[in-house]
Amino acid sequence: MARLLRHFPAYSATAALGLILLVFIALPVGMVLSESVRLAGPIPLHDLARITEDALERLDPADRARQTERWVGSLRPEERTATVAGALALVGMNVPWDRRAPFDEQAAAAEAAVRGLTAAQRQKFDAVYPLAAITLHKRIALAFRLRDKLTPAEFDQLREGTRQGYGLDHYMAVFNSPRLQTAFRNSLSLSAVVSVVATATGFVIAYGINRGAILGSRLVRYLTLIPLVSPPVVIATASILMFGRNGAVTKGLLQDTFGLIDADQTNLYGWGGVILAQTLAHVPHAFIILDNVLSKHDGRIEEAAASQGASAWQVFARVTLPMTQPGIARSLVLVFMLIMTDFGNPLIIGRDIPVLAGILYDEMTGFQNTRLAAAVAVWMILPALLIYVLIERIGRRKRYASAVGAPPELPVPAQARFALNAVAWGVIGLTLVLYGAIVLASFVKIWRVDHTPTLAWYITGGVAGFVSEQHGVTAVWESVKVAGLAAPVGGMLAVALAYLVERARVPGGNALGFIALLPAILPGVILGVGYVVAFNLPLGIKSLALTGTMVILVLNILFANMFIGYLAGRAVLQRYDAVVEEAAESLGASLWQRFAWVTLPVMRHALVLGTLYVFVHGLTTLSAVIFLVSPAHKLASVEIFDAAERGHYGVASALSVTILLIVFAVMGLIHWMERRGPVWAKVGALAADRA
Amino acid sequence: MTQVALRDISKTFGPVRAVDGVSLDIESGEFVCLLGASGCGKTTLLRILGGFTRPDMGEVLVNGKRVDMLPPNRREVGFVFQSYALFPTKTVAENIGFGLAVRRRPKTEIAARVAELSELVRLNGMEQRYPHELSGGQQQRVALARALATRPAMLLLDEPLSALDAKIRAHLRGEIRAIVDRLGITTVYVTHDQEEALSIADRVAVMDAGRLLQIDSPMDIYLRPRERFVADFVGTSNALAARPVDGRRVQLADLTMDVPVPDGLAAASSITVCIRPENVVVRPAGSGGGAGRLHSVTFSGAMVRAVVATAEGRELVADVPTHEWRRLALRRGDAIAWTVRPDSLILLPGDQG
Ligand SMILES: Nc1ncnc2c1ncn2[C@@H]1O[C@H](COP(=O)(O)OP(=O)(O)O)[C@@H](O)[C@H]1O
Ligand SMILES: [Mg+2]
Of A138, A446, A453, A611, whose CB has the highest number of CB atoms within 10 Å? Predict the structure, then answer.
């Protein structure tokens, strides 16, 4: 009892947090899965006849006889033919004519079939004929007649003749429907190619930086990461501006100036363009992973290889590469997953190449077919998850946590140095050119047509009569509002959860941690679709519906991105001695006081990081929120996507530039504050000493 | 025959002079220990020998040829790193055979050599394990075997035992020396542990703040340190100011002792005398010698360490064999007389007390 009392604060905090996580993460994810296996199919004739018979029995006998006579008598000729076929099927006989033949032929054949029955058969046939008639043609009238005596489900079932079932039919569509088949194949190939190219590029840059072979390596590190904090489809949009049918390079330079190509034929639309844009957009992800791995290698290991007589190439191929292999595998899987589920770039420049993301987008927005969309979403993540599990199984013995050591002092050979610099600066150069194009395009009337400088894209939405629904960059403020609401709450929740899991060690804490990490493994689209399914009509109660509100955007952004703060919080706590807190507890500090006075200051960095991540991602995410925005609540990232898709590059550029500026400003501010942090702490400590 | 010669080597890292004008000749087949406190530049000097670090100044000669521009893979040295630096992706056998594999030696030859070395460092049966499946001592053996597999001309070890606990350390120290003797390979061994250095090396090179202070046999380092730092760093020593009297005697407090004074010191008005504790003799008061009082007594088994406060107000550490101490029957606070064994005095220039 005392124990329970002592732990009560921790337990109740966990329970509350657990409930929140269940509702806003586990539930939507679970709903995607359940939605994907739900089917609505016609009930087979025999079952439907039995259901109809049950319903008929609820009428009082006299009424039943009267109605039956009326209903059978009122059948139209074509209904009569269909009834004959139905009755034959109900007595277990084949229907001996082609049901798709012209009506006249069918009617004649039906009459002939009835005439051809034996006396015994005829008797059975006559017995089921009325039931067949009602089952096939008068169920709706019957349902309404019995409305008071039926449950709503029974009523719907009888009226529609369909029922809810479960099955893998939506999943099988990927194999059965040519449209999905092609898209699936394209998605797989695209993801495979890009994951290899992006990982290779990321590796080259990370290796070069960590071996001191790259000029201006600090700058390279920063520039490489820019696409990571960019709004969606910036690279695709910029690529169109540069390499599209009317692109600065394709049309302006190669066609008009040199006459080398016809830009209408040779341009980035298609495989090359998608691969290029996706590679540039995803090199940072690969880079982060590989930079992290390479910077943790103990340089002495490579020196050992060199002193064993290995040449620079042998050191690289036999020692460095194998040690980096787990990181390479992780990078391949991550990029593969990201490309499989990315909407932006392929929908902007790759519409000729159907991919799963495009199918999902069309099914969600065009046909409201959430069931098929849910199955497609699962298909988008399944391959990467399979690869991941496979790698984990094979690579179980391979964890090369080496002592964090200094990098090796072995010189990188001159040719290799040159190649490393060429790749790194080539990628960065191209990226900068593309971003430059976006900035320019946002300040001119029409890119490559009318270069009159204008602020119209920022202020009014542009040329009169054009994009009338756009109002400059107002959508950005909506985004800032949403992300600004989600960020601090998400950061706090993440840190609190980290504390409960890592320190309070409450029962079930690890399960909560797992739920919190789900969005880290599952791409945004799953949670996006999940929110639509789960919160459209929660528990069937209309007033609880969140779709169409700003709340759903805030919640989605918060929960889809809080895992970074959680991971950072746990990392901090694992490094910092728990005894300090026990000391505080022995001095009488409550759970809250321990958290707020002792632990939170230590975790400030994790809190800042977690908050920043939610904010930046909230501004730039597309796939999670694209199905959640509504006319009343638009987000800039979705606006950018819509504008770019419709070819309104001025608006798309202006929105992108504004978001980039905000992101950079916030990151710069935080960086500055964090640098100042310790100084303030020192001042505080000095003041405390004096007192 | 001189195999390796360092000529006036210097290396700075920013403001830090990690190695400061070191010259050193190493004979073929010799076992040299670099001894010094942490941060004194031992690793840097060893890495210069191994070719990982380029000296800012000076030359490295091997068999008379300059090698300081050669990369490590052309140096023919075996290097054992402090952290072992085993290849985590490779088994024990692959680690040991790595140097031969990169030289594209036939598989059978590699296998034979790996077997030979596993035998030598007593790792047989563990060839298929990965480094993280071995204990620290075993990892250390793998690192040694790997360094030896290519039959290098020189073996360089950077504090190879510092990550192990004391007992294994003493044991492995003997093993390393035995293996090196068996192979007759020239060896440079870095350590900050003076006991380890004295017990393992043919010659000990004592370093401080990047400079090489003295290189001599362990016995000479201990008995005839040429600098106060060496005397203090290797073993314990009492430093007292003294005055040379003609060329044959030294006046120390109220004792005058017959000690040959080297020519360079004879004319000085004041010199420093270092005395090892085991050479301080303690007797009951009144038996002649300097006057003092017993300040503290610590028993450590075979020896009793007595700290004596002299009449001049200095402290003198004396180690007295336990059986003798029992005969003396002295207590803390007792007045005593002290002398030193004259043949053990270490005379150093200047007033370094
Ligand atoms: N790569 C380096 N960069 C900067 N300073 C270094 C580097 N390597 C060594 N130093 C400095 O040089 C001095 C000698 O270091 P080191 O040779 O490692 O000493 P030891 O091995 O004797 O402990 C130390 O002050 C150390 O900080
Ligand atoms: Mg060292």
Answer: A611
- Paired sense of beta strands B186-191 and B31-36, if any: parallel
Q: Which among B171, B207, B197, B202 is positioned nearest to B186, based on CA atoms?
A: B202
Q: Are A404 and A298 in contact (CB under 8 A)?
A: yes
> What is the value of ipTM here, to two decimals?
0.77
Q: Is A416 on the interface with B (CB under 8 A)?
A: no
In which band, very low, low, confident or very high, does the pLDDT at B253 lie, cut at 50, 70 and 90?
A: confident
**φ, ψ of residue B65 in degrees (nearest 5):** -105, 140
Over residues A105-120, the mean pLDDT reads 87
- With CB atoms and an 8 Å threshold, state whether B73 touches A308: yes
Q: Does B215 lie in the same domain as B142?
A: yes
Domain match, B13 and B56 both: yes
User: Looking at the structure, do residues B296 and B341 belong to the same domain, yes or no?
Assistant: yes
B77 near A CB under 8 A: yes
Using CA atoms, how far apart are residues A150 and A152, in angstroms rounded to an integer?
6
C-beta B40 within 6 A of ligand 1: yes
Q: B87 contacts in A (CB within 8 Å)?
A: 301, 304-305, 319, 322-323
Distance, CA of A618 to CA of A481 (rounded, Å): 10
Sorted by where each starts, the structural domains of chain A and their CATH numbers stand as: 2-36+472-576+602-661 (1.10.3720.10), 41-166 (no CATH), 178-227+259-441 (1.10.3720.10)
> Which pLDDT score, from 0 to 100, does residue A399 have?
56
The pLDDT score that the predictor gives to residue B179 is: 92
Q: Which of A314, A323, A409 sits opposite B89 (nearest CB)?
A: A323
How many domains does chain B divide into? 2
Residue with tokens 């020692």: A319
Rounded CA-CA distance B172/A613 in Å is 51
3-class DSSP state of B9: strand
Please give the Cα distance from A157 to A152 (Å, whole number). Answer: 8
For the sheet with B31-36, list strands across it: B77-80, B154-158, B186-191, B31-36, B203-208, B211-216
pLDDT in tens, A409-423: 888 888 889 999 999
Q: Please indicate, yes or no, whether residues B178 and B258 belong to a single structural domain of this protein.
A: no
CATH number of the domain at B147, please. 3.40.50.300
Give the phi and the psi of residue B352 in degrees, each rounded to 5: -95, 0
pLDDT band at A687 (very low <50, low <70, confident <90, very high): very low
Last residue of a domain, one of B164, B198, B232: B232
- Nearest-Å Rg of the Cα atoms of chain A is 32
Question: What kind and span of H or E run contains B275?
Answer: strand B271-275
What b/e readout covers B216-247, taking b as 16+ CB neighbours within 10 angstroms? bebeebbeebbbbbbbebbbebbbbbbebeee
Instruction: For residue range A183-206, list pLDDT tens digits in order.
Output: 999 999 999 999 999 999 999 999
Cα distance between residue A664 and residue A659, in whole Å: 9
Same domain, B173 and B27: yes
Question: For A366-476, where are the E strands, in sequence order?
Answer: 444-446, 450-453
* Pair B289, B336: CB distance under 8 Å: no
* Antiparallel, parallel or unpaired: β B280-284 and B249-252: unpaired
- Same domain, yes or no, for B193 and B299? no
Which strand (E) or helix (H) includes residue B349? strand B346-349
**Other beta carbons within 10 Å of A163:** 17
Burial class of residue A168, CB neighbours in 10 A (0-12, 13-18, 19+): exposed
CA–centroid distance, residue B79 to ligand 2 (Å): 13
